[in-house]
């Protein structure tokens, strides 16, 4: 069910994230918009072999990006571990039609297992400060909040950074 994304998946991935953005906005969560995420971003994720899809019977239900690359925005954060062997999770998304079915949990289980297998010392990510459900989800998984960053093209509100150390 979880496999590396291919360029032929880009349109479906974009449609999935657009559906997520619309559903989040309906819940008063303005984290994704016309500036992010983009098809170009997904193409880059796929070209770097960093995006994975969750499919069932050929239906795209979720995505996750696993990368060792630290974004510039993360550099000022005082992380729990040194910046030399960390896996970053980005663009975790599940189509709203499948929310509540454990798909995000399975994608995170996959990402964390991958990080352990590849001997990363931690997993790092960020989530929107106005998305309380996501914050609770990560805290229940053992992630610790370590700081905040801003993406002005996405929101005036911060994004909280989290890290899971084994």
Could you walk me through the main structural features you see in this protein, from its secondary elements to its overall organization?
There is one protein chain. The chain has 166 residues and is α+β, with helices and mostly antiparallel strands. The chain is 30% helix and 28% strand. The protein has helices spanning 10-26, 39-47, 103-117, 132-140, and strands at 2-4, 51-56, 59-67, 86-94, 122-128, 144-149, 159-165. α3 links the parallel β4 and β5. It is globular and about 40 Å long. It starts with a strand and ends with a strand.
Average pLDDT works out at 95
The dominant shape is globular
Cα distance spanning the termini: 26 Å
Could you tell me the strand content as a percent range? 25-35%
Give Rg in angstroms: 15 Å
- Which structural class fits the helix and strand makeup? alpha+beta
Number of DSSP E strands? 7
Q: Quick one: biggest sheet?
A: 7 strands, mixed
Q: Which strands sit side by side, in order, in the main sheet?
A: 1-2-3-4-5-7-6
As a percent range, the share of helical residues equals 25-40%
Spans of at least 5 consecutive residues whose pLDDT stays below 50 are none
What is the N-to-C order of secondary-structure elements (H for helix, E for strand)? EHHEEEHEHEE
Helical segment count: 4
């Amino acid at each position: 069910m979880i496999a590396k994304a291919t360029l032929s998946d880009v349109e479906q991935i974009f449609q999935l994230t657009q559906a997520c953005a619309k559903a989040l906005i309906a819940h008063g969560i303005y984290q994704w918009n016309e500036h992010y995420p983009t098809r170009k971003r997904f193409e880059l994720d796929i070209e770097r072999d960093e995006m994975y899809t969750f499919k069932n019977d050929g239906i795209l239900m979720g995505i996750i990006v696993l990368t060792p690359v630290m974004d510039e925005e993360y550099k000022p954060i005082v992380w729990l571990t040194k910046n030399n062997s960390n896996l970053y999770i980005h663009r975790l998304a599940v189509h709203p039609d499948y929310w509540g079915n454990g798909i995000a949990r399975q994608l995170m289980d996959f990402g964390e297992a991958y990080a352990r297998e590849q001997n990363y010392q931690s997993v790092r990510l960020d989530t929107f400060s106005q998305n309380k459900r996501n914050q609770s989800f990560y805290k229940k998984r053992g992630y610790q909040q370590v700081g905040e960053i801003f993406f002005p093209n996405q929101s005036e509100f911060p994004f909280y950074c989290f890290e899971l150390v084994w």
